[in-house]
Amino acid sequence: MERFAEVSLELLGGFSSSVLLFLFTLILSLPLGLLLSAGLLTKVPLIRYPVKAVVTVLRGTPLMLQIFAIFYVPGLLFGFVWPSLSTGIAYFDELFSTRFFAALTAFAINYAAYFAEIFRGGFQSIPKGQIEAGVVLGMSKSEIFFRVLLLQMLRRVIPPLGNEVVTLVKDTSLANVIAVTELMFHATKLLNAGLIYPIFYAGAFYFLFNALVTVLLKKTEQKLEFIRV
Q1: Positive/negative CA dihedral, 91, 93, 97, 103
Q2: What are the extents of the domains in the chain?
Q3: Which residue stretches of the chain are H helix?
Q4: pLDDT string in tens for the chain (229-residue length)
Q5: What is the pTM of this model?
Q6: Are 11 and 197 in contact (CB under 8 A)?
Q7: Which contacts of 77-84 are long-range, i.e. CB under 8 A and separated by 24 or more positions?
């Protein structure tokens, strides 16, 4: 039991890193994805085509490859060193390492590309008559966007957005490839030490976290049901 408690505490420490990586990725990638979707929808070719090229590359290459590239390439080509956060507390210093911030950047950029396509599809699914009605009512462009288009778009994209969010929970394990001390990093370390059950234990963490995320997404979808689609 004592050994099991030690393993549990170690996995919990790794799980906290996975949760933070998940939350920070959402905080950064959702607004960035909205911005990229605006670039995809603009009629200005000098903006639309470069944005479309970036989104295509990010969606067409493996996330693992992008993590490696973002962590190693800036240093090899430009001597760039990823920052770290020094708090004086060993746990947080290990958590917010240079590797964590590199992985977070890769995750945020990658998922922003997927969210951009989802948002683009959501905006394009809204009838143009909605915009025309807003103009007739004397609404400004910002009012039409925030009070008409954005709310309806969010209601329409919750299901596909939810699928990506659920995938993100599992994809946080890929940060292990550059030795970010997340859940799979600790589970693999324990496996190498001769313990098998931590791998299945880690799977339970992911499953329960995904179950919680799914419930929250369902609640959000229900809250938005009043919006006309």
Answers
A1: positive
A2: 2-223
A3: 2-41, 45-60, 63-78, 90-95, 98-124, 128-136, 141-144, 150-171, 183-192, 197-223
A4: 667 788 888 888 889 999 999 999 999 999 999 999 999 998 899 999 999 999 999 999 999 999 999 999 998 888 888 888 776 666 666 777 889 999 999 999 999 999 999 999 888 888 887 777 777 777 877 777 777 788 788 888 888 998 999 999 999 999 999 989 889 998 998 888 888 888 998 999 999 999 999 999 888 888 777 655 4
A5: 0.89
A6: no
A7: none
Please enumerate in sequence order all residues whose Cβ is within 8 A of that of 220, keeping only pairs 6 or more positions apart, or say none.
Answer: 158
As to burial, measured by CB atoms within 10 angstroms (0-12 exposed, 13-18 middle, 19+ buried), residue 87 is exposed
Please tell me whether residue 81 adopts helix, strand or coil conformation. coil
Fold of 2-223: MetI-like fold (1.10.3720)
Map tokens 């919990």 to a residue. Answer: 12
Q: Cα separation of 187 and 201, whole Å?
A: 8
The structure tokens listed for 228 are: 């006309």
**The residue count for the chain:** 229
